[in-house]
Amino acid sequence: MSGIISKMRAHWAMTIIYFLNLVLSLHFYLVLYINSSFLETTLGKSSVSILYIAGSIVSLITFVFTPRILGFFGLWKYLLFVIAGEFLAVLGLALFHSPLLLAIFFVLHQTFSTVVFFALDAFLEETTKEETHTGELRGLYLTMANLALVISPLLAGSIIAESGFRKLYFISALLCVPLFFVAFSSLRTVAKKLPRHIKTWQTLKTILKNKDILNVSCAQLILQIFYTWMVVYVPIYLNQYMGFGWKEIGMLFTIMLLPFVLFELPVGWISDKRLGEQEIMIGGFLITSCAVLVIPFLHASFLSWAIVLFMSRVGASLIEVTTESYFFKKIDGADSDLLSVFRMTRPLSYLITPAIVLSAFALLHFEYSFLILALITLSGILFASRIVDTK
Fold this sequence. Notes:
Elements: H1 2-32, H2 35-43, H3 45-73, H4 75-95, H5 99-127, H6 134-163, H7 165-174, H8 176-186, H9 200-209, H10 211-241, H11 246-273, H12 278-294, H13 302-329, H14 336-343, H15 345-363, H16 369-378, H17 380-384
Helix pairs in contact: 1-5, 1-6, 1-7, 1-8, 2-3, 3-4, 3-5, 3-14, 3-15, 4-5, 4-7, 4-8, 5-14, 6-7, 6-11, 6-13, 10-13, 10-15, 11-13, 12-13, 12-16
């Protein structure tokens, strides 16, 4: 009987986590693709890359101390704190006009949005006991997030066209309210107080010795660089260089993001039951790099942009679910230090990518900078080929 009750509690907790992931993703993705355009409009073009770099530095520092904070406060209190911080940061972007305050709130948003996803990751890993189903569970978890990802650009484009940027940030902030109260009321008994873990430098040494963790983390970093480049610079390129309006951009991004909903769940199952992760991951990097290679030669044709952006995310969806599945098969719920370093790839990409782009802009026209991204994405095959497959 106790075993049945334990399973029912685990299923209930997982359902709550999936719901929270859906709401959090809708909150986050509503503003993800318009952040760079909002910063450029309100603070000037030169501020965009600088603020993304600043946000990534603060995020990385936060991740360095996250395992220690978790060991002291526990996962539940940590999650509530970062949700509250994210609410205040995005609300500040909606309400204030001071350039200094907007810069501070954006950096805080970059930081809190990163660590709140990390906290939900840790909750999910805490409730996942059977590693043979990791790919399926991760695929479902990602698919729930990607439902929000697909509809968000269309909603965002319509809201911006009608009411401007600030109303969108206000709506995004409001979504943190149910997020906080559901987490407060439903997850307290799920989280265990995590033990204090080894220091970050020791964790990095552990990763360097574990070649599989190292290579899948590098593959994840390449994917995050691709995401960052597309999130920050493609909206600006489409709006200012290709002449697309925000409603058209919203439609393009919705089409672009469909592969995440269509492919990640079945690919997670295939990686568990049939192929493993390696072959799918390599194929994903190849598809994505080929799609990015075409971007400099596209004209202002809605159909051609829709096809190329869609194919870029076909590859990215394959990479995302296989890197996630592979990594989480290699750790358990107690490895918050390893998870923390793995999740550092996102803020690290926001540090690396603007630096690369700023250097590229000094040598190349905007459109030809995507050739560099194609080469970077192609290099992911090297890391994917070095992992020991699970099948």
